[in-house]
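Lab notebook, bench 4. The sequencing result for the construct came back, and we need a structural model before the next group meeting so we can plan mutations. Quick request posted to the team channel:

Model the 3D structure of this chain.
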Amino acid sequence: MAERNIRLTLAYDGTDFEGWQVQNRGRTVQGVIEEGLQRMHGHPVRVLAAGRTDSGVHATGQVASFRSDIASIPGSRFRDAVNAYLPHDVRVLSSAEVEWTFHARRSARQRVYRYYTVCGPVLLPHLRHYRHWMRRSPDLVRLNSMAAVLVGQHDFTCFSAEGDANHSKVRRVDVSAFHREGETLVYTIAATSFLWKMVRTIMGTLFSLEEQAMGARELRLVMEARSRANAGATAPARGLFLERVIYGSGSDDAQEPVEEAEPAGGLAGDGLFPAET
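Done. Here's the predicted structure in token form:
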């Protein structure tokens, strides 16, 4: 029977997962999805994702793909069919049959992450697994002056975790900016790809430098040193969400990539930032 290529857009609560990728021990998102697909198909099915989120990291727009030999289910109906085999902390938001060449990871042009921090005296209990919390209110202007330094192609060795298997630590960041939503400080970063724990280490570093009244100059020195020891602590995973994966116009997930000419902190028209009022 001929196989079909199926794309899924996923959301999951990362609290009780040891990340996306299947491991020798621990519950993983890939693991529970592959278990569900095996029950559905009657044989093992491998699932590929756009990004391998770490333990405790959430997603509202993860993209995955797999090959299916089930001919009777329309592409858009795989959403409901797969959800019937998944636990409640993982949901398929949409599904589609795509061209054979589509690959959730290799076809992706950008990954968009957001990190949420509540700045105030109290963190509401229902947000404790989904928000970082600090009692003080940091300087937004200072944070954005540092965030802009990250835009472009740089060596991000200082933000990579020990044990990162990537040979090259050079990455291109297209968006890096903070904005406020009430008491919540939201950091948005979009890049072609990321190093292991890169976003969380960036967050910890920016917050640390801002608290010491430092800024863009000091961040550049940290990056130029190319040493993890010079960067800040890794921020908690609970505030981080993989919110969107962007594919080129030639893919079945036809979303236009971010324009490289867009200034740092822009992209309001692309839906990455709220429109100004």
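The longest helix spans residues 198-211.
Will bring this to the meeting.
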